[in-house]
Amino acid sequence: MSEKTNLMPTLVGTDPRSLQHQEPAAEVRQLEMPTGLLKHIGVVRTPHFDESRTREEFRAIKRYLVARIDSEDASDAQNARNILVTSAAPGDGKTTMCLGIAMSFMFERDYQVAVIDADMRRADLSKRMGLADELGLLDYLENEELEVSDIVYPTSVKGIYAVPAGRPRISAPELIASARMRELLDIFHHSGEKRRVVLIDSGAVLSCSETIELAKRAGQIVFVAAKGQTKRADIDEGLGILHRQAGPIDGSKVAMVFNKTDKSQSPVRYSALR
């Protein structure tokens, strides 16, 4: 690799355990739609942001991702707005990281965010948003009679929308790899007045084959590792798989986020890719 691609951005995240004691979201469960139908609303619980730490660290990660979007030309900017959040192994806090990044966009005037639960092994995002029993991604990909509006749910936070995983299927990897999935991502970016960022909470690279297919369609990948928990060998193997099967990957596409840190650090540094 050249000197330019030898360096990977390393963003220092925060400890998700600090987000477990949160202010409850408003109890908004249904929304009157123009058709007269009632649609469930997903709940995004607002983190109790610490002025000097948690809020600013998620904001630093968001600003890095937005800077990448703004730096692309018109043909690549849409691709850069597809952001995959993954990890080497389960339990590294990627779902909390995905929600934290989404929440940081609530302060943006020019963006809307669609958060997609594509972790078909755990579907933690759907559970945490109260949408585990609703129609979702896999239902849409399998049933061509469903419209995008059938699986997109407004949340309790303005400007943030959710797509739950849907009912589990043995054919999930094939559905994720289908042309209909690619078309769904295109639809998100060609509707609405504001620019859309699509955050995809995927399964861990070492345990979910469909994550590779999603990585091929993501312009940016946030790779989460938990301090003192994630093994270096797993990180190397996960990045190696992404590079071989969905790459090439380098600092222009992948950013490492170190999660569960015990103190604030400089938010953006660079580490050698080995």
Quickly name the level 1 CATH class.
Alpha Beta
- Calculate the terminal CA-CA distance, rounded to whole Å: 10 Å
CATH topology: Rossmann fold
Counting structural domains, the number is 1
Low-confidence stretches: 1-10, 12-38, 266-274
Binned, the helix content reads: 25-40%
- How many separate helices? 9
How large, in whole angstroms, is the Cα Rg?
18 Å
Tell me about this structure:
- The chain is of the alpha/beta class and 274 residues long.
- The chain has one domain: P-loop containing nucleotide triphosphate hydrolases (Rossmann fold), CATH 3.40.50.300.
- It is 31% helix and 21% strand.
- The strands form two sheets. A nine-stranded mixed beta sheet has the order 6-7-5-8-4-9-10-1-11, with helices on both faces.
- Strand 6 and strand 7 form a beta hairpin.
- Helix 1 packs antiparallel against helix 2, helix 1 (54-71) crosses helix 3 (94-104) and helix 8 packs across helix 9.
- The radius of gyration is 18 Å and the shape is globular.
- The model is unreliable at 1-10, 12-38 and 266-274 (pLDDT under 50).
SSE layout and pairings?
Blueprint: E1 7-12, E2 30-32, E3 38-40, H1 54-71, H2 74-80, E4 82-87, H3 94-104, E5 111-118, H4 124-128, H5 137-142, E6 153-154, E7 160-163, H6 172-176, H7 179-189, E8 195-202, H8 210-216, E9 220-226, H9 232-246, E10 254-259, E11 268-272
Parallel strand pairs: 1-10, 4-8, 4-9, 5-7, 5-8, 9-10
Antiparallel strand pairs: 1-11, 2-3, 6-7
